Amino acid sequence: MVKQVFSPLLLLPAAVLVLSAAVFGAAQDSSGIKHNTRPEAAAPAATPAPFRKVENDSARFSYEFTKPEFYIRHIRVEHDANGRGVIKFERLHDETVYEEPLELSAAAWTRIAGLWGALRFLDSEENYQSEKQFPHLGTMRLKMERDSRNRTAEFNWTNNKDAFALANEYRRLADQAILVFDISVARESQPLNTPKLMEEFELQLKRNGLSDAQQLVPLLKDISTDDHLPLIARNHALRLIKKIEK
Asked: Which residues of 87-121 are buried (b: 16+ CB within 10 A; e: fewer)?
């Protein structure tokens, strides 16, 4: 589902202790798929508690990334306390705002919730921006709302390991959602592009660049039996399933 959106995005959900994506540089790999490069995410210090469905929590979370010169020049992720929301993004030289529904996997939501909790975001007044500025990497914004309380933090680089890890979790979430979007478009109207997208999928898998590859196994199984797609793409999807399920 693709929608054109011409107005500012609404704020993201937030949760009890409980999203990804700092895109840090435009590049193009040998497969011909444009993507962004960035430093690896820092692992959170503590293991978060398993995800539990939250009832009657008004919390809303959002992550936003902006860098007009990048191929993916604007990303906004919004979700509620149960990991349901939307992703909106814009590409270079394209005025369309693409919007897709988003549902975090239990594993991704557990990590993200743990990082929000570690930051004690609404109770903190910490400035996450490091003394050294890196504006060429783009601007990231984290926002959380609950009831009448809300807070936004903006930075282009941070030395806070939890804020850094949270931004990278959102980056991985966005990369995964955009990859799924591109695969969906290719299957509908550009099936010859699917082999390159399978290569991009494998590249992201190798660099641990996806939020939860296991969540995409049903999609890969569907691709592997889609007779409208090139055989090379179908076979590649089968190999990816084996790698994910190891």
From this structure: bbbbbeeeeebbbbebebbeebbbbbbbbbbbbeb
pTM, entire model: 0.79
> By the 8 A CB rule, do 46 and 60 touch?
no
Q: How far apart are CA 44 and CA 48, in angstroms?
A: 9
Q: Tell me: the pLDDT tens digits for 109-158?
A: 999 999 999 999 999 999 999 999 999 999 999 999 999 999 999 999 99
Residues 6+ apart with CB under 8 A from 145: 11, 12, 13, 14, 58, 59, 60
Q: What residues are paired with 84 via a beta bridge?
A: 103
The residue type of 137 is L
pLDDT at 61 over 60: yes
Interatomic CA distance for residues 118 and 18, integer angstroms: 9
Short-list 39, 118, 51, CA closest to 79: 51
Average pLDDT, integer, range 224-235: 98
Angle between helices 161-189 and 106-119 (to 10 degrees): 150
- The structure tokens listed for 61 are 């979370």
